[in-house]
Design brief:
Urease, subunit C, domain 1; TIM Barrel; nine-stranded parallel sheet; six-stranded mixed sheet; 13 helices; about 35% helix; binds zinc ion
Length: about 350
Amino acid sequence: MDVLSGHVLTEDGIIEGYVCIEGGTVTSVEDGRPTAAPLATGLIVPPLVNSHTHCADGGLKIPPGMTFMDLVAPPDGLKHVHLRGLSDQALESDIRRYAYASWRNGAGTFIDFREGGEKGCRMLRNAAPASTILGRPVSEGYDRDEISRILDTADGIGISSISDMDHGYIERVADQVREERKIFAIHASERVREDIDLILSLDPAFIVHMTEATDSDLLKCAESEVPVVVCARSNLYFSKTPPIKRMLDCGVDIAIGTDNAMFGGPDMRLEASAFRGVLLSQGGSADDIVGPLFRNGRKILYPHNKICVAAGMKADLSVFPCSGEFRIEEMLQSSGPVFRYEPGKEE
Ligand SMILES: [Zn+2]
């Protein structure tokens, strides 16, 4: 039997306790301290879901003074020119480096808005099998076969925004993704406020950013139970501030994503630290980081019984260093290595 000890994320919140594992399965979660020596000590959680990334652009060094449009607007923003200019080999090695950093930082998967059509999706699946891939069509107009081919490899479709594409096109893509029971997601109100009714009519699994959202937009997301993924570091880079406190007040489920690799690696502790800075400046409480960081990303992908640590689940766990009383702020400040427990690796 293996034991992990410290604090555990359970359905009842974070408790002081330990986790017993046998044959790759969590056999029990107990209060207090174990009698056996633990393999690792810290905060024990299921691996995080980094809920929004663009993993391939980590090799881009951003020149100073770039605006949002200069940098990321498709098709000719610097990022897209950079991606088109790279050899497949260079792109793949950038992706592999990213996926390794993501794993090392305690994430189990990252939900990537993958550029480059079906070819881009196949490359990501090959380089990072555990990634969650939302592909993007490259055809000028809606092409049912292209979407099908992307969905053969990808977990869904991630669209740039309703401002960048014809609405009829997006609508047909969203319909097809729903028919094929895959994930549809879209950036929303990142740079300018966009029509939330139009966006929610696409029935997205989640939307990303909402920096320019009004309270009424946020209330509609909460009512429709559409989570919002916040990428604070990326927003701050473009001098935008995500309205995190207003999102919470409106009842929105928030998840956290690290966005473009060129803005910083897939380190969820660093990302959550930026999230924390914004939340506190808006009068929020650091305790409100726990859901967005540990639970809400998993809720997007997994059923209810896989959100927290519980007996019977596969012992795929991350242990974040933290000592003594659990304090989220202390945990975020620790840059110590995350211990990864993975079934099959324990024997
Ligand atoms: Zn994005």
